[in-house]
Amino acid sequence: MIKNKFIVVEGLEGAGKTHACIYIKNILYKRYNIKNILLVRQPGSTFIAEIIRKLIKKKFYFEHLTKETELLLMYAARIQLIETKIKPALKKGIWVISDRHDLSSIAYQGGGLGINKIIINQLKLLFLHDCTPDLTIYLDVCPKIGLKRVLNRNSLDAIESRSLEFFKRVRKTYLKNIKLDQKSIIINANLNFNIVNDDITKKILIWLKKQHI
Ligand code: T5A
Known about the structure:
The chain has 213 residues and is of the alpha/beta class. The chain has a single domain (6-210), classed as P-loop containing nucleotide triphosphate hydrolases (Rossmann fold), CATH 3.40.50.300. Helices cover 56% and strands 13% of the residues. It is built from eight helices and five strands; from the N terminus they run E-H-E-H-H-E-H-H-E-H-H-E-H. It has helices at residues 17-32, 47-57, 67-91, 102-112, 117-127, 143-153, 164-180, 193-210; strands spanning 6-11, 37-41, 95-99, 135-140, 184-188. It has a five-stranded parallel beta sheet with strand order 2-3-1-4-5, sandwiched between helices. The longest helix is centred in the middle third of the chain and has 25 residues, at 67-91. It is globular, with a radius of gyration of 17 Å. It binds P1-(5'-adenosyl)P5-(5'-thymidyl)pentaphosphate. The site of P1-(5'-adenosyl)P5-(5'-thymidyl)pentaphosphate has 27 residues, from helix 1, helix 4, helix 6 and helix 8. One of its GO terms (molecular function) is ATP binding.
């Protein structure tokens, strides 16, 4: 019997995470006949978490969302999703693929906004417990390339509108953390779709083999 897994895809805006989540789902289905897969995104994927998502992404011109408020909203959405969807799914043997997880808070609110990592780690300890990914796939994209892709698609939201320096700090934090995480894979997401897809396929198949799947 194949043990279900919790897979997280991380990266900057425009890295191709949404595309990669669907692509991985297809690999699991087509190559391993795994049909029970829940795809979620953070913040979001529950009624309440989607409301929080809208709030975070909205540009407010009359009031500033403080960095601590932003962190706590990210965590509120995450806890809501974990408790109502991710944990129940994992208990039932369903595979979960999440577009972002707590590493996003470390990278954006920690690295990008400068919130002390002790505070973020406390939130993780308090609320995530054992809800940690079996695998994190980090799609590494240079901020300029990622933001250009997003801008080609639509106008920028409140976070996407931040400075290039902000995204450079986010990327630096991602890279620093991901290199310490033994349960992770790094993909060069600056390249075209075919090359990125081939790299994801190659690396995820190696990982699945190691899991005896
Ligand atoms: N956030 C989130 C925090 O600050 N802290 C947290 O704890 C959490 C959980 C979420 C925002 O919240 C922040 C980060 C974000 O700012 P979002 O809209 O979900 O908002 O933002 P993203 O998750 O970054 O989603 P994006 O859609 O912007 O990026 P994706 O999912 O990485 O990229 P994707 O697949 O949608 O592709 C974007 C565009 O790029 C093209 C695609 O076709 C698409 O048009 N593209 C490529 N083009 C050429 N070559 C490639 N290799 C391409 N890959 C993608």
